[in-house]
């Protein structure tokens, strides 16, 4: 029941916003839907980690510990970005016709809805439909500013993601096929598939997993299928970029992790590990190459997402208890730090009206809060203590050096390159004298308040490992059979 | 219907479906390409009906009917509307010449047989023999998307790819579960409607629907 409520709130919110005739009313519905989604999500997550497994609509939806972790990320960051979105849209759409904010807020909740369906669906096909749905819900948001560049970004995003997801469907169909002859009834649910994993045809499962990694890897932003990502994430309005980079990429990754748990049993863990290590290293290399001397700060953050998804893939490839534990922890850390940085990038854009790093001078002077927070967020993201990503990257590469020393060493070298490249870019933005006529003061300072929570969590994860959180991650590892 | 007759009929129809995919490459004008897609979808509906009769599956019969509504009637209508509105740019403008494109189609078909034959060999269903043909359709649909500059042809390539996957799933397992199939149709329909909007926006912004013009976003 709780699960159904979590899914229905954002859908109802989107419908109410679409029907609103007044701007204030839209904002009220937006805020209410956000709070309600967060509350219901938290309640559902608490139930799952209390030991229950939530189901809804027969066997279509099922929330275990892994799904619950995703629900927590989606609803929490969905709420953080939603609050900032109110201020951002007021600033960006001052005096625009009503249809614009209506489109934005309605699609926002539709987007959250499709992500929630994707991670709670027990049926592989339904998950596929929902992940394709995330593309369809966000494509107009990428094109929201209606410039030529955003049009190009949105079209590319639509076509490439649709093709990627089509390839994932071949993988899904092949998994159905691998399960069909043995179980009689086609095994269509994660639970049934895991149980039948040993009897699946390994030949078919190998081919299926290649399609799954390429297909859902496109949605997760893995190189070389990432080419839509820097365009789409840099053209979308800041709150949407925050969700696409911090949350949506993880939904693609979630699908890969689910399939990997089955493939590991069906064909042995070496096959999936090799594939993920390779694709993780390629992603890290591509990201490193584009992060050195990057000219746009939004693209910089987008490529950094390619990098971090690559790190998570490496961690999954390293496998074992610590590799998998580090991967989960890094998913959380990356989501927290990337979403706050994209939110701050919205503030910089409102101030300087340009996404070029070269145009942004003296950020610490012109917008002290934004500048200081952007610096702190960047330090967290590139893996400096006392923030969470330092710990998760440490765990990951510690595990990697034991199991796959070459891949781990290569990954660490690339990490250093990224470190230098990003720090140099951000340095350029922070110092110097701002151009004349730029009034000092932060844009939307009060609307930034929610990201204090991101920082608090990042610090907590960097300094301690709360027992309840560790227990929750252990429950997820159990689901994955690690 | 005996398994042997079904197997022959399925092989024949899958072959026709693949031929219609290749027809999109040969046809110079967008209207002709749209009708090739509509016809292919109809062939797929026929195939679903045949398999539905053989296996006695009412759900699969329903899938065939929805397929006719969505992919034979609705989507070609949407695409024809788009072709009519964009006016002059009705010639397909590929990157490669037709003969080079056909050569690549042949290569892709060989690859499809190479990859899919061992997979299909372990399948006891009478329809499994045609799986490589379906996979070839997927690969060629993919190639159409890459090779054609017009947004409409790119969308047709996507739809052909989608049809190929539908056929592959149909042949391998008699289709995925009903509710999933319906969801996929819904997604494809919404995707095509969104793509239609984008065709108009590209046309308004760039005064052409040549997607080769979309090259502003660089490092």
Structural notes for this entry:
The complex is a heterodimer of chains A (482) and B (219). By secondary structure, chain A is an all-alpha fold. Chain A has helices at residues 2-19, 23-49, 65-92, 99-120, 124-142, 148-183, 190-196, 202-220, 228-235, 238-267, 269-291, 297-318, 320-352, 363-366, 368-381, 388-403, 405-430, 451-463, 467-480, and strands at 54-56, 61-63. Chain A contains 19 helices and two strands. In chain A, strands 1-2 form a two-stranded antiparallel ribbon. The mean pLDDT of chain A is 91. Chain B has helices at 3-26, 30-55, 58-86, 98-121, 131-147, 151-173, 178-206. Chain B has one domain. Helices cover 79% and strands 0% of the residues of chain B. The longest helix of chain B is centred in the N-terminal third of the chain and has 29 residues, at 58-86. Chain B is mainly α. At the A-B interface, helix 5, helix 6 and helix 8 of A face helix 4, helix 5, helix 6 and helix 7 of B.
Write the layout of secondary structure elements.
The complex is a heterodimer of chains A (482) and B (219).
Chain A: H1 2-19, H2 23-49, E1 54-56, E2 61-63, H3 65-92, H4 99-120, H5 124-142, H6 148-183, H7 190-196, H8 202-220, H9 228-235, H10 238-267, H11 269-291, H12 297-318, H13 320-352, H14 363-366, H15 368-381, H16 388-403, H17 405-430, H18 451-463, H19 467-480
Antiparallel strand pairs in A: 1-2
Chain B: H1 3-26, H2 30-55, H3 58-86, H4 98-121, H5 131-147, H6 151-173, H7 178-206
Helix pairs in contact in B: 1-2, 1-5, 1-6, 2-3, 2-6, 3-7, 4-5, 5-6, 6-7
What would the keywords be for this entry?
heterodimer; A: 482 residues; mainly alpha; two-stranded antiparallel ribbon; 19 helices; 2 strands; 79% helix; B: 219 residues; 7 helices
